[in-house]
Structures are given as structure tokens and as C-alpha cells.
From TrEMBL:
<dbReference type="InterPro" id="IPR010499">
    <property type="entry name" value="AraC_E-bd"/>
</dbReference>
<protein>
    <recommendedName>
        <fullName>AraC effector-binding domain-containing protein</fullName>
    </recommendedName>
</protein>
<dbReference type="Pfam" id="PF14526">
    <property type="entry name" value="Cass2"/>
</dbReference>
<dbReference type="InterPro" id="IPR029441">
    <property type="entry name" value="Cass2"/>
</dbReference>
<dbReference type="InterPro" id="IPR011256">
    <property type="entry name" value="Reg_factor_effector_dom_sf"/>
</dbReference>
<feature type="domain" description="AraC effector-binding">
    <location>
        <begin position="3"/>
        <end position="168"/>
    </location>
</feature>
Length: 172
């Protein structure tokens, strides 16, 4: 079972980027550059490369985030929102093609995935740890942090990714 590497407190975060809503695995399953998540990252990367003068300053250059957001339909249809982007100041001017997401202040359980763990079904393992340790997921989202430790899809074996899950004690 996966266990968190640490618990952290974070103030609100503002992310600028692109979003997708639906079943991201409808075309291709798992970790694949051709499923909707992979295509979203490609579209985001292409825009950033082609329009660098229109981008706001990243608060953490070289770090990207992927947010999985549950909606009311998620349990019924398996559809949810995926947002990819980078952290910005809330008043940053963003291009019209971008969306802006505000993540609330939260305590996060941080799970560091290495190698094959990155493409495994870690959601179930994280849920099991939360239940066993007396925590519940808060706010209905999780956040994946891609920094210099992520070497790309072609080199997952040597990569690390942090998954941040907003948590609170059960019963609070």
C-alpha cells in the first residue's frame, strides 16, 4: 500500500492552463500520450512554446500541475475534469485561451510515485491508506506535481511524480 511521504499545509494556489471534461480514457487507456490527458498536455505545451510572450510568469518555473476534479456526474458516468497548467499570481494576466483555477488552502498528504508506480492504479491504494489512517479526501480533487524529477513518458522508470491529496481527519 502506498503511504504518504509527508503532510504539508499549502495556502491557496492559482493555476493557469488548459482543461478537459469527460472520460479521458475513452480513446486510449492508461498512461498514453494519445488519450485525452496526453493530448491536453501536448496542446498546452504547444501553446506555451508558440506563444511565450503572452504567458504570465510561472511562480515555479519548470513545474507543471495536473488536477483531477470530480463533479456530480463523476460517479455516474466516469467523467471528470482534468486541468493542466502552472502556478501563477491570482492577478496575473492570462491569454484568452487559458483558464484560471483557484485551489483552496488545504492540508495535503503527498505521495511520491516512482517508476512503475506512476502508471499503476494508485487511486485505489491512496484511498485504502486514507481509510486505514483515519483521513478523508477533502474538496474532491487531487493534484499531480511534475517537476525536474519527471523525465518524460519515454523514461518513466527513472521518474518521480508527487500526488497531492487534500485531506482532513475523518469526522472533522
Amino acid at each position: 500500500m502506498l503511504k504518504p511521504t509527508r503532510l504539508i499545509e499549502r495556502p491557496e494556489m492559482w493555476l493557469a492552463g488548459f482543461a478537459f471534461y469527460g472520460d479521458p480514457f475513452q480513446l486510449r487507456g492508461g498512461w498514453d500520450e494519445e488519450n485525452e490527458i496526453g493530448r491536453l498536455w501536448q496542446r498546452f505545451g504547444r501553446f506555451c512554446a508558440e506563444q511565450p510572450g503572452s504567458l504570465p510568469s510561472a511562480l515555479e518555473p519548470g513545474t507543471g500541475y495536473e488536477v483531477h476534479i470530480q463533479h456530480l456526474e463523476t460517479g455516474e458516468r466516469g467523467e471528470y475534469e482534468v486541468f493542466v497548467g502552472f502556478q501563477v499570481e491570482p492577478e496575473a494576466g492570462i491569454p484568452i485561451q487559458f483558464s484560471l483555477k483557484r485551489l483552496p488552502p488545504a492540508q495535503y498528504a503527498v505521495f511520491t510515485l516512482r517508476g512503475a508506480e506512476i502508471s499503476a492504479d494508485w487511486d485505489a491504494q491512496i484511498s485504502a491508506w486514507l481509510a486505514e489512517a483515519g483521513w478523508v479526501s477533502d474538496f474532491g480533487f487531487n493534484l499531480q506535481c511534475y517537476d525536474a524529477r519527471f523525465k518524460g513518458m519515454q523514461d518513466l522508470a527513472d521518474s518521480e511524480v508527487d500526488v497531492w491529496v487534500p485531506v482532513r481527519r475523518s469526522g472533522e
